[in-house]
Write a structure and sequence with these properties.
- By secondary structure, the protein is an all-alpha fold.
- Helices cover 75% and strands 0% of the residues.
- The chain contains 14 helices and no strands.
- It has helices at 2-33, 38-41, 58-67, 69-100, 104-116, 121-134, 142-163, 168-176, 181-192, 194-210, 213-218, 226-231, 242-263, 267-276.
- Helix 3 crosses helix 13 (242-263).
- The protein folds into two domains: 2-56, no CATH class; 59-276, Orthogonal Bundle (MetI-like fold).
- The protein is globular and about 75 Å long.
């Protein structure tokens, strides 16, 4: 029985190792091709750079010049940081108010937010972009409001599941000590939310940083984010600088990978806590 269990564990380990390699392969291919000449990428996309194909950092310098990567990085960073900050702040407060207020309005608001999770973005993208233009939200500051709306459903759902597990007695004790509701939330509830808060931050950061369609529809080429800047490397009649594109993709991936790896130990804990507890 023990030998059978060890055999099953080894098979699972090998399978997971293979699966990990399969997921890592696209990133490795992009990294390899970022150091190869643009004319060799299509012919030998899976080959390592050699003496004939290796071009050093030429693709990186070319991509930085053609795309305006530095300004695009600034816009992406600004939009991502403030959008994620707004989502965390407002949705955690909303989830706390909904969970602790047992009435029809709070229930209706909760299910309305949950329902927004299942509405495909393609159903609302044209009306959304038109409304963004009418209400002057078609700029790097205005798009933060739009991201808050689209990210509210999942975030409130995750926060609500976790808040249900927090004993009310902790909040009642804070109120008895003289805290008002706002102080109770920021001094008592918010520190307890740290695991799920980090999870929500990671999920929304990865989504907003890599998002192409929403910035393209709302702010277009006036304020190019990184995905839009990389797309501009594709010229007319199908011509495109694949070497520079691969190099810019590597530069775009690095910040989000570092951010994820630095916080990844919290993500499973937060997801389980927010989805199962309560």
């Amino acid at each position: 029985m023990k030998a059978r269990k060890q055999l099953i564990d080894r098979i699972i380990f090998v399978f997971m190792l293979f699966l990990s390699f399969a997921y890592m392969m696209p990133i490795l291919v992009v990294l390899m091709n970022s150091f190869k000449g643009r004319f060799f990428i299509a012919d030998t996309p899976f080959a390592m750079p050699d003496v004939d194909t290796f071009v050093g950092l030429k693709n990186y310098t070319s991509g930085l010049e053609k795309t305006g990567f530095i300004p695009a990085f600034g816009y992406s960073l600004f939009i991502t940081v403030f959008s994620v900050g707004a989502i965390i702040l407002f949705t955690s407060m909303t989830a706390w108010a909904i969970t602790r207020s047992k009435n029809r309005f709070s229930s209706f608001l909760y299910y309305l937010l949950v329902f927004s999770m299942i509405v495909p973005f393609q159903m609302v993208m044209f009306t959304m972009s038109k409304m963004a233009n009418i209400t002057r939200l078609d700029n790097p500051v205005g798009i933060i409001v739009i991201y808050l709306g689209f990210g509210a459903g999942l975030s409130v759902f995750v926060f609500s599941g976790f808040i249900k597990s927090i004993p009310r007695e902790i909040e009642e004790a804070a109120l008895m000590d003289g805290c008002n509701p706002i102080q109770t939330f920021f001094l008592v509830v918010l520190p307890i939310l740290k695991p799920v808060l980090i999870t929500v931050a990671i999920l929304n950061t990865m989504w907003i940083w890599n998002d192409y369609l929403l910035p393209y529809l709302v702010i277009g080429s006036n304020y190019k984010t990184i995905p839009i800047a990389v797309q501009y490397l594709q010229g007319g009649y199908g011509s495109r600088d694949m070497g520079a594109m691969m190099a810019m993709l590597v530069l775009a991936i690095i910040p989000i990978v570092i951010f994820y790896l630095s916080l990844q130990k919290h993500i499973i804990k937060g997801v389980v806590a927010g989805a199962v507890k309560g």
